[in-house]
Structures are given as structure tokens and as C-alpha cells.
Amino acid sequence: MTHRRQILLHVGLGLGGLIMLFPFVWMLLTSFKGVSQMINEPLAWLPAPWRSQNYPDVLGSVPLGQAYWNSMYIAAVTVAATLFTGSMAAYAFARIPFRGSGPLFGLFLATQMVPAQVTVVPLYILLAKLQLIDSHLSLILPAIANPFAVFLLRQFVRAVPVELEDAARIDGAGRWTIFWRIILPNIRPGLWTLGIIVFLASWNSYFFPLVFLNTPDLFTIPLLLDSFNSQRGGVDYGLTAALSAMTVLPMLIAFLVGQRKILNSMASSGLGGR
Sorting pLDDT into bands at 50, 70 and 90, what band is 80? Predict the structure, then answer.
């Protein structure tokens, strides 16, 4: 019975994987279709004929390089700042006792239950007063205070043996030295995991760039995709699929590189149900 259950489990997981992979494969195949085939044979699986001209047409019609750069450096700065602030807050909550730390940490985590769209009005007013609307800082600064980052890294900090800190303290190390030389090297798997998660979230972010950015030269990849069809006055599915295929590539690479690190880190931190 156990062997039969394992077979059924693997078959179910395989079918689930194929279902999830189907939209991506359909997008890639559609990117090689022409307009006439999309109109006459909208459900055709394979392109007939294969049209590679969609990719040069897209590159010649949109500033893809600028949008790539905008999304990439926003994601990189957001990841670096989130790792820095999140790791320090996690160390404070996990290792530095202070009055009210438990309720404060619970309140901090409770902010995750508030939808981001609810905070957009006060956030917009605040950023407008700081004159940060229509700048990339309006996307970077709000993303730095990440409750999930603190929660995840706190689990890794708690897994670091206290004896390592005690030994460093006996040698005269202070809090800052312990943090940099003991804590950070031992929570590196958690930093990798968090970095990948934050990068993917920043790269895919659509709502906040839509609200805070107005200048086309500042647009990120999701905004470029959104504005592409509106500028052309209609939807060309072949060109849209080609643009989508080129924009999803960094996200796919980040996931393929980091999926094992994410799963292993979740398990070792106790988030996998241990």
C-alpha cells in the first residue's frame, strides 16, 4: 500500500507540475506565432510557420534594456537593504533581551496581515511630502521594512548555538563584532533564501510601480509590459508573448538557481514543519 501511495503521489505531483508548466510553454510557443495564425487558429499548439521576427520587432519598439536596468538595480538595492536591516532586527529579537520584545515582535508580524493596497494612500502622502513620487526610492524605501524577513532570519539566528557568542564575548567581542563575525556567517543559508524571495517579489512588483512611477524612463519590467499594448492601440499576442518571454528569463534563472537553497533553508530553520 505504501508503494502504491508513493506511485500515486509521484503521478499527482507530475501532473501538477505539467499543469503549472503549461502556461509557460504556451507563452514560448505563442511568441513564435504570427498575427494571421493567432486569428485563424487561436488554439493551434505549434506555430505554423515559426516566426522569429517577433523578438527583433519587440526589441526595436520598446526600451527593454532601460526597463531591465531599472528592475535589476531596484531589486538588487532592495535585496541588499532588506538583508541588512532584517538581519539586524532578527538578531535583536532573537538574542538581545529587552522589555516588551515578545509583544513588539508579535505586533511587527501582525502587519503582514494588512494588505499592501490598504497602506497605499498614507504611503503616497508620505512619499509626496518627501518629494519621492516618480522616483525609484519610492519603491525601495517602503520595501526595506520587511516583517517576513525579520521572522525568517530570526529562526536562523535562534538556531545558532549560544555557546559561540559566549566564547566570543569572553574574548572581548562586542555585539557588533558578534553580529558580523558569528551570526551572519552562520545564517548564510537564510540570507540566500531571503535574497531570492525578495528579488523575485521586487522583480514582479506591479501595483506600487503603477502608483508611484509616471515617467516612462523609470518604468520597471511589469510597467513596460502593461504599457506595451496600450501604446500600440491593441493586443498583438505574438509580440506580447515574445516580450513576456524575455522579461521572465531573470526570474526563471533566479528560481532555478535558488530553489534547492530555499527548500533546504526552510527545512533547517524549522519552517518546513519540524
Answer: very high
- The DSSP 8-state label assigned to residue 135 in this structure reads S
Length of the chain: 274
For residue range 209-258, list pLDDT tens digits in order: 999 999 989 999 888 888 877 766 566 777 888 888 888 877 777 777 76
Give dist(CA 142, CA 127) in Å, integer.
10
Whole-angstrom CA distances from 174 to 84, 112, 119, 136, 181 are 18, 32, 38, 36, 11
Closest alpha carbon to 247 in 214, 227, 274, 225? 225
- The Cα–Cα gap between 132 and 25 comes to 40
Is the separation of the CB atoms in 134 and 215 below 8 Å?
yes
| Of 35, 68, 39, the residue nearest 54 (C-alpha) | 35
The set of cell numbers assigned to 246 is 524575455
Grid cell locating 250: 531573470
Query: From the CB of residue 170, how many other CB atoms can be counted at a distance below 10 Å?
Result: 8
> Percent of the chain, pLDDT > 90?
23
Q: What angle do CA 241, 29, 54 make, to 5 degrees?
A: 50
pLDDT at 87: 93
Residue 201 grid cell: 517579489
The end-to-end CA distance of the chain, in Å, is: 26
Residue 250: strand, helix, or coil: helix
- Nearest one of 257, 268, 141, 137 to 195, comparing CA atoms: 257
Instruction: Single out the residue of 121, 139, 122, 19 nearest to residue 77, CA to CA.
Output: 139
